[in-house]
């Protein structure tokens, strides 16, 4: 028979319910109640269903870069992990370019001599993590892994625009298609920002808008610069030339 320990937990027949014990014997003696606990009992022995505490998150990978798809869960017994990709079973341990974390469901891709853009694009898709033990299975929300190449500029013809003083015009930046949103700066050859005002503004689309042209707006170096924070790169587009024809009866607006 297992040796027992005694703990005083209540008085006058009141029971303590805050201990999730497997085997309890209540012995009430007058004003005291005694709980008998097996000496080989451990609270860590209590079985718990899995709960995902660190689910995978959507990520955008630019170029041949590293990524981690995380999944961590609690539960007793310790949960085992499985994945699906685009609705199909996916085993990261069988992938030569992935490293799987021990005791976790997480896996990562590390750029190396044997990894290239083709290898990386194979992992693009929608992932779901599953953590399972004897008491059930927990499922994470869907996380999307998107692979994007470094943005590049296509060769363009030098643009020249002619307009009358007092008219309005839009100089378009036309950034390359990318999942990354650039910060756009309009500058001249000397990398000085184009002066903006109530009359000259940069729109949310990155275009340069002139509400009312002055002859002083004439120049041949309106240059759109695209700054990509994720990759710490700046792309410089070809300059745009703007020629404003004077208007004898127009008035000037700063």
Automatic annotation (TrEMBL):
Q: Which residues form the signal peptide?
A: 1-33
Q: Which InterPro entries match?
A: Ig-like_dom, Ig-like_dom_sf, Ig-like_fold, Ig_sub
Keywords in alphabetical order: Disulfide bond, Repeat, Signal
Enumerate the GO terms in the molecular function aspect: cell-cell adhesion mediator activity
Where does the source fall among the domains of life?
A: Eukaryota
PROSITE patterns in UniProt: IG_LIKE
Picking any one GO biological process from the record gives:
brain development
Query: Which ranges carry the Ig-like domain?
Result: 49-146, 151-241
Q: Which residues form a coiled coil?
A: none
SMART domains (UniProt xref): IG
> Which Gene Ontology cellular component terms are annotated?
axon; plasma membrane
Q: What is this protein called?
A: Ig-like domain-containing protein
Say which species the protein is native to.
Oryzias javanicus (Javanese ricefish)
What phylogenetic lineage does the species belong to?
Answer: Eukaryota, Metazoa, Chordata, Craniata, Vertebrata
